[in-house]
Each structure stands twice: as structure tokens, then as C-alpha cells.
Amino acid sequence: MRYLKLLAIFWQTSLAARMEYRTAFLLAFLEAALEAAGKLFGVYLFYSNGFDLGGWRWQEALLVLGLASLLDAFFIGVFNPNLRRISEMVQDGTLDFVLLKPVSSQFWMSSQQFAAVGLPFLLVSLGLIGYAGGAAGLDAAGWLRLGLGAAAALLLAYAVAFLFATTSIWFVKIFNVVYFLNSIVWTGQYPVQAYSRPFRLFMTFVLPVYFMTTAPAEVALGRLSAGWLLAVIAVSLGVLALSRAFWRFALRYYASASS
Amino acid sequence: MRWLLRKAWTLVAVYFAYMLEYRGEIFFWMLSGITPFFFMSAWTVAAGRGLTVYGADDYARYFFAVFVARQLGIVWVHWNMSEDVRSGKLSFRLLQPLDPAWRYLADHVGERGVRLPLLALVGLVFAWLYPQALVWPGPGRLALGLLAAALAFGVNFSASYVVGLLSLWLEDATEIYNLWYVAVLFFSGMLAPLSLYPEPVQRALVWTPFPHLVYLPAALWSGLEADAARGLLSLLAWNLFFFALGRLLWRLGRRHYSAMGA
């Protein structure tokens, strides 16, 4: 409860601060629309050349695209602005102040910022998911599975991003690893079946993009049994626990730059 | 003239040394550009089903060339400019008898010095994984492709600089650059060779700079069909356009600068 209150305060202040840059916010709407159009065009390119991305109907593939866009929106709105601060705070030693606060430092570092420019992307992605889910004929149970799967996917993406960002305790200026992850998630726009085998294995076992977009869509569409939903959730929770443990471990090596 | 060259060389060397410090970050930055290889994978699967005119090797060649072309064209001067305007650092740069644009350009050129060896490393890995895709494009196509890549860098840099100058009015103009970036992402030929795009889209794109920024050098290097003369002329024209626009905005914008933090 205390954490929810904190979150509300954090995001209100962030919003207020970003109101200084209103043009940027308005432009983000245009950008979100343009990017969605471009992504749709990307999927269309495959279908117009007769390639069904490894056995997906058009509207089903759009569901995968929608989930990838949802992740993108969270990267833009929450993950990127927060996680880049870990690297900044290690650089100038201000991480000290966070560690002294009577709040979980991981919570603080992951949620303090909220970029309003992510909102248009969120709206567009939800619209895309809504359209694709409707066109693919999801029933109530399907929507429920999709919701749970999407939540697990977001958690997983966050946990992996946080794992990556934590390495800045050692490497200091390494913010680009989060960009790297962001670009890998970009490849989750298409179902993994569209890729050749080595890429598929990479996306499942090395960087688990499969569990972020394709798997939730498959579960929602009933291509995978509901038991798989538990597997997706288990993977998310597992990586989340790992990211917590890794953060604590990394903090032992934090040397505090300025003091 | 020699004096000028020495100055330019010093400036580039300084930024090269600065960027060398951040080689790890540049490496990850480069890795985040590997998405073309995923498109390669997907189109290869499509080619395996006999769906497209190109074969698997064509795709491997093309998308590796796309990767290189994109790496050579990366710019961030809009970000430098926005940052300098917001933090007031631009004030110091204005005091020096040197147009800040040269400093930003040296920053980019120096960074290429760090990026190129790393790029060669990725090239080696690629050559090891896809030896069958390796083919010598011939000196003519190689040179034309490099020329196209250099001109493409010019367009990217000038466009990004123009956007950066807008931050003299808007404070944060990086969002505008994202619009340009999104268009480049989807219409430069990174998703697929341009010839696979629908006809009307192809025809519309010829009038924009986008297909020439990535597709032209990549197609020249990988042996796909490319209208080099038209592409290079178009790149030249866009260079002039953004350069002139940049000069104009710089003249107008300086008066708007409020030297924040000073």
C-alpha cells in the first residue's frame, strides 16, 4: 500500500516535470501513430510476398505485434527512463542517497521516473491488441489468458532489463545495454516461427523474447494449452527473483563514487 | 591549408580519445543494431519455401550490407545540441572562435574510428558463420557504395543537426528526430530489399531520401539492382537542402538562445 502511494507521488511529479516539454508530448502521438503504421507495414511486407510467418493468420500475427508494441510502450515510458538513471547515479555517486532511503532500492530505481511520451504508444498498442484479439475471435477466457500472459511478459521484460542495467554497478557507463535489450524485443514483433532455427533457439533460451510476445499470444489463441500460461508466469517470476538477488549481490560491489 | 588540416586533425583526435573511453558502450550500441540479421533469418525462411526472387545467400549478403550501412550512418548531433541548449553548455561553445557544428562533426568522425574496428569484429563473426555469403562486389561497386554511405551520413548528420537547432526554440527537440528515425527505420530497406516493397510504395519513396540512406549502399555492395546515378544525385540534393536549412536555422536560432544555467 505504501509502495502504491509512493508510485502515485513519483509519477505525478514526473508528469508535472515533463509538462515543461508539451510539444514533445504532442509529437509523441504523431510518432506513435507513424511507428504503428510502419510496424503494420513490416508485417504486411511478409504477407504480401506470400510468407505467413510460419503458419500465422494475419490477425493472429497482429496480436503478436500488439504485444511487442505494448512492451515497447513500457520501455519508452518506464524502463528506459528509470534504468538509465542507475548508470547515471553510479557515475556521480548519488546512488548513496537512494540506498539510505527506507524503501526497497530496486523499487525506487525501477519506478521513480515516468515518461509521459510513453502514453501515446501505450494507447496505440492497446488499440492494436484490441483489434487483433477481436479479429482473431478471442472469447472471454482467451482475453483473460491474454491479460495474464501480457502481465507476465511485462514482468519478464522488466526483470531482464533490470538484470542488464544492474551490471552498471561494475561497468559504470553501460546504459546502452538497455537499448540493446530494447532492440532485441523489437525482433519479437513477429512470431518466433518466422525465424530460422538458430534464431528461434536464441530468442527462447538466451534472451527470452519468445516468452514476451509469441508465447502469450499462443496461449491466448489456444495454440498452447493453458498449462503453458503457468510456464510463462513461472519463467517471469523466476527471472524477477533472479534480478532481485543479482541487485543485492551487485550492491556489495558498489564503491560509491564521490565519498 | 595545412594549418586548417592540423586543426581538424587535432579536433578529431580529441574526440577519438574521448570515445575510446566509452568503447564498451559503443559495442553494445552496435549490438543493438543487429536487427537486420533477424530480418535476414525470416526472409531466408521465406526463400526456403520458394516465395521470393532472392535466395538465402542474397539475403545474407544484403542484410549484412544493411547492417554495415546503418552503422556508418549513425548520428546523434540532435541529442548533443538539445543537451547543450538545455544545460547551457552551448554558451561556452559560442565563446570559442569555432562554429559548434564542427565540434559535433569531429565528435562523429572520431567515434567512427572506434566503431570501425568493432564493426570489423562483427564482420569476422559473420564471415565465419556465413562463408557462402561472402562475395567481392568489385572495386567500382565498393567505391560507389562507400560514396553513397558517406553521402548518406551527410544527410543523416545535417537532418539531425537541423532538428538539434530546433531545440533553440523548443528546448527538447529529440522527439522530432524520432519521427525522422521511424521513417528511416521502415522505409530505408531495413525490413526487406526495396524491390519487395509494393510498387506504389517504391515509386513514392524514390522522391524521399529514405531508400538511398540504406538500400542504395547496401544494394551496391551486395549486388542487388540499384539505380546508382539517381540515388547519388538524390543524396547530393538532400545534403544541400539540409545543409542550407541548417545554416539558416543557425542564423535565426542564435538570437533565440537564452543561455540557461548561465
Quick take:
The complex is a heterodimer of chains A (259) and B (262). With 259 residues, chain A is mainly alpha-helical. Chain A has helices spanning 2-18, 22-48, 58-92, 95-100, 105-111, 118-135, 140-166, 168-171, 176-186, 197-206, 214-221, 226-251.
Mean pLDDT reading of chain B: 90
Number of strands of chain B: 0
SSE string of chain A, helices as H and strands as E: HHHHHHHHHHHH
Q: If you compute it from the alpha carbons, what radius of gyration of chain B comes out, rounded to the nearest whole angstrom?
A: 20 Å
Question: How many distinct helices of chain B?
Answer: 12
**How would the global form of chain A be characterised?**
globular
Structure, described:
- The complex is a heterodimer of chains A (259) and B (262).
- Chain A is mostly helical.
- Chain A has twelve helices and no strands.
- Chain A has helices spanning 2-18, 22-48, 58-92, 95-100, 105-111, 118-135, 140-166, 168-171, 176-186, 197-206, 214-221, 226-251.
- Chain A starts with a helix and ends in an 8-residue tail after the last helix.
- In chain A, 47% of the residues are buried.
- With 262 residues, chain B is mostly helical.
- Chain B has one domain (2-254).
- Chain B has twelve helices and no strands.
- Chains A and B meet through helix 2 and helix 9 of A and helix 2, helix 3 and helix 9 of B.
Layout: helices, strands, pairs:
The complex is a heterodimer of chains A (259) and B (262).
Chain A: H1 2-18, H2 22-48, H3 58-92, H4 95-100, H5 105-111, H6 118-135, H7 140-166, H8 168-171, H9 176-186, H10 197-206, H11 214-221, H12 226-251
Helix pairs in contact in A: 2-3, 2-6, 3-6, 3-7, 3-9, 3-11, 7-9, 7-11, 7-12
Chain B: H1 2-21, H2 23-31, H3 35-48, H4 56-72, H5 77-87, H6 90-95, H7 100-129, H8 139-170, H9 174-187, H10 199-205, H11 210-222, H12 228-254
Helix pairs in contact in B: 1-7, 2-7, 3-4, 4-7, 4-11, 5-8, 8-9, 8-11, 8-12, 11-12
